[in-house]
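Exercise 7b. Backbone tokens:
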């Protein structure tokens, strides 16, 4: 029979190591999040931009929100299958601004290397798996092209279709 004190000591060491490992794993993952757009205590996000200077989800409203000091802007986007592009719009039929559609790439291009984007991916729940894969590729290409990959978070009511975005390194 084994010594009860030895078994107790081994048990205590095991629990301490387990707690230390869990703490380290949590700290590492939380620090990854807090070094992103969640860092700091106060953030102002503009819902669809600042709509006193242009309709919501417009280039003018996004521009004005950032000029007024917003850290980020929430935008509504659809992945348009026929054009293979992200369109900024709250509804279908898509909003038109000065007779044309606003593409997400245009917003990223104008904003440059600053500002955060919370994208409400309106039709992600309606896409089939191969369409989701295509949308992920298009979004990553845009985000990388305009240096916005670490400044974008995607929201959707479709948890399953968010998985490929999350696995690709996009905040969800």
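Sequence design result:
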């Amino acid at each position: 029979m084994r010594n009860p004190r030895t078994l107790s000591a081994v048990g205590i060491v095991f629990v301490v190591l387990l707690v230390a490992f869990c703490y380290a794993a949590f700290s590492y993952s939380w620090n990854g999040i807090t070094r992103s757009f969640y860092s700091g205590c106060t953030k102002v996000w503009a819902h669809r931009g600042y709509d006193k200077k242009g309709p919501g989800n417009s280039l003018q409203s996004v521009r004005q929100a950032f000029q007024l000091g917003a850290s980020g802007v929430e935008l509504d986007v659809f992945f348009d299958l026929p054009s293979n592009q992200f369109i900024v719009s709250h509804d279908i039929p898509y909003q038109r601004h000065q007779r044309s559609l606003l593409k997400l790439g245009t917003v990223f291009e104008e904003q440059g290397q600053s500002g955060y984007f919370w994208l409400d991916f309106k039709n992600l729940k309606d896409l089939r798996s191969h369409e989701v894969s295509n949308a992920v590729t298009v979004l990553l290409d845009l985000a990388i092209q305009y240096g916005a990959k670490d400044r974008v978070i995607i929201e959707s009511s479709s948890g399953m279709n968010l998985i490929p975005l999350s696995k690709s390194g996009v905040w969800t």
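Instructor comment: Residues 4-34 form the longest helix (31 residues). Residues 133 and 164 are 7 Å apart (CA to CA).
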